[in-house]
Specification:
Blueprint lengths: L1 E7 L2 E8 L2 E7 L5 E9 L4 E2 L8 E5 L3 H6 L9 E5 L4 E2 L4 E3 L7 E2 L2 E7 L15 E8 L2 E2 H7 L3 H5 L4 E8 L8 E6 L2 E7 L7 H9 L9 E3 L14 E6 L3 E8 L2
Parallel strand pairs: 6-17, 8-14, 9-19
Antiparallel strand pairs: 1-2, 1-5, 1-14, 2-3, 3-4, 6-7, 10-13, 11-12, 11-17, 12-14, 15-16, 15-18, 18-19
Bound molecules: magnesium ion.
Magnesium ion (MG) binds next to loops.
């Protein structure tokens, strides 16, 4: 099933998505909920980020091709960092270029949404903790990332984490094509098959550090081809089966 979040006439709801229509959901999608008929037209609502995590845990250099383009080695253990939930935006919302950076780049990534609380999760049982998958863009101020050493500023600006358009609970992450186009030109093309650490190993590693909560979002790294974004660019990230996440770039 495909879940999303939306706002209609000032109220925010979870919904399910079916044949271009939305059905309202009452309750907690990670526990008990009730679905209503999918009869709301998608054009009658504002789509919100498809997730509402307590934290966003990201993975650096998880594709050999991307590590190579930055002339760094693939890590021996997963390299993780955080983005703040305040960086989230939804499908069709604007990525705002901050004045502090002159090199903001896109990073097309598969997002994993956690479904139940866990610590020290075994890779063999990691699947039980996954609620579903979505598309994310780990937008990065590359100049500030390099300048600071720490990645918090370069990765953490408001609007630097577009996510959506929905969470799919039936997606198979083993070999899905990831494409990123900027103004219709293909910039990134990779497969989730080429991750250095697959999803279940990432969940095991991250949960050995911090408790994962329902709704938490894990970004799984980006394939090669990251590049600079400019004012008015249109970024479209597609992952087979998960739809297209589309955002416009803006100076304000
Ligand atoms: Mg990234």
């Amino acid at each position: 099933m495909k879940f999303l979040r939306y706002e209609q006439q000032g109220s925010v709801s979870w919904g399910w998505y079916f044949e271009d229509k939305i059905g309202k959901i009452d309750g907690n999608i990670f526990e008990n909920y009730r679905r209503f008929e999918a009869n709301i037209s998608i054009s009658d609502v504002n789509l919100l980020p498809a997730v509402a995590p307590t934290k966003i845990i990201c993975t650096g250099r998880n594709y050999a091709s991307h590590a190579a383009e930055h002339k760094v080695d693939v890590p021996e253990i997963p390299l993780i960092f955080l983005k703040p939930p305040s960086s989230l935006i939804g499908n069709n919302e604007k990525i705002v270029l901050p004045p502090q950076s002159s090199q903001v780049e896109h990073e097309a990534e598969l997002g994993v949404v956690i479904g139940k609380r866990g610590r020290w999760i075994d890779p063999e049982t990691a699947d039980d903790y996954i609620f579903g998958y979505t598309i994310a863009n780990d937008v990065t101020a590359r100049d500030l990332q390099r300048l600071d050493g720490q990645w918090t500023r370069g990765k953490g600006f408001d609007t630097f984490c577009p996510v959506g358009p929905f969470i799919d609970t039936e997606f198979d992450p083993s070999d899905a094509l990831i494409t990123c186009k900027v103004n219709q030109q293909v910039r990134q093309l990779g497969s989730t098959r080429d991750m250095v650490f697959p999803v279940e190993k990432l969940i095991a590693f991250i949960s050995s550090v911090m408790t994962l909560e329902p709704g938490d979002l894990i970004l799984t790294g980006t394939p090669a081809g990251v590049g600079v974004l400019s004012d008015k660019d249109i970024v479209e990230i597609e992952i087979e089966g998960l739809g297209v996440l589309k955002n416009r770039v803006s100076l304000k």
